[in-house]
Amino acid sequence: MTEKHEDDNTEPARAREIPPEGMRSHTPHPLREAVRPHLAPVFSTVTALIAVITVSPSMRAGATTIGPLLNIIRQHFGQGAIATGILTSLPCVVFAALGLSAVPLARRWGLTGVVAVGMTVSTIGLALRPFAPNFLTFVLLSVLALAGPAIGNVTLPAWIKFHEPGRAVMLITIFGSAMPLGGAIGSAVALPLAGADGEHWQFSLAVWAIVAAVGALLWLGLRRRSGVDFPLADSVAPGSRGANQSTASTRRAPERQSLPLKGEGKAASSSSPNLSIRQLIASPTALTLMVMFGLQSMNAYIQFGQMPTMLTILGIPGVEAGAMIASINVWAIVGGLVMPIIIEKTRHLQLIAVGFGVIVALGYLGLIVHPQAAWIWISMMGFGGFTFPLGIALIPARSREPHVTTQLSGMVQGGAYIIAAIGPILVGILLESGVSTVSVLWVLVVSALLMGAFGWRASASTYVDDEISR
Predict the structure, then answer these.
(1) Which of 27, 119, 228, 415 has the smallest count of CB within 10 Å of its CB?
(2) Quick check: pTM over 0.70?
(3) pLDDT tens sequence across 179-205
(4) Which one is the CATH code of 40-236+271-467: 1.20.1250.20, 3.20.20.450, 3.30.70.120, 3.40.50.11270?
């Protein structure tokens, strides 16, 4: 392998192999036999921005459009509350299964490749799901429809940090905002598109296949340029110092977080990119981040799926209940814009995380005490939902190395959605067995307080890389 001087700008600005620092031998690295070595950035910042924007909106809409239409779907297929609880929990189950498998798939096909495949599968599922002949087929096609969001949740933060380390905060902010925007639009237009009597509900669901198709086509094109783009532990990330790039394509990655972290400056321990689940769970930050994320997702999918039904039981008209759920996603847009910046600047993240849990709990309490002011209480739930962009942004903020970020994202989100899947099923069982809506809301109060408690530890100033080295 021929070494290039770091200041040599004679080679054209194009993607090319970058030898890891300190590598002087011609002996092949065992992992490099299966995975293409690091490449200099093949995407401009504008291309990365467009890629994130096109894929993000459909990552929520496929799930949030179900909630306002849940009663129509249930009646169409002749199902009860438990079956609809399973349908509501389906995003969590799919996100857990594919979240845990996303990293091995990305190692084989590349980060760009798995997003492209996932969005293609989602497009097929979204297009066919509304015309399913029975409930089981509807559920199976819903699994396909959720494949892209499940994979994207895990891989997009790592893709951003790998390809655009110097623009990570900006792109993750946009990702965290565009995703709930799609969810808000999906909830808001689901019933109006379905028509006054719900006869066009199939069209209301199928229209999102067009949005997913746009993202799938773009990412398939990006995959042809990226190759197998997966971060190796001993390689230099594109755009960071030490990467041998032309002057025109160099983007220097930030050397350190604005927020001082415990153990900063300590070398990351693992030189192997294959961290085990046991290693990651041994990190208190990784474990509590997973539980916090799981409790937030559990509350979110209950809100998206079963809260419209509970609001109608409390006396709120169906269309207004759908608009309320859409407003939760609007709040999430605001959270996606501000939380990555707050994470970089503030020294009080633990208090903020606890505060979000308390605010969500107060929202549920408000519905119990005075449901007539539901807009206020739903808005509080939406504000407390800033825990989601907090969790998304903490994944790259609490890990140094791209390979740790990738595997932390898979572990946190995969495990979190296993936790989250319990909630909608439990709510469905409680409602079908005759438990009152008020009692269900009390259960949700407890879950929100627990979310805040785990958020306190997850937001502590430390790197997962350092914890797994001890």
Answers:
(1) 27
(2) no
(3) 777 777 887 888 888 887 788 899 999
(4) 1.20.1250.20
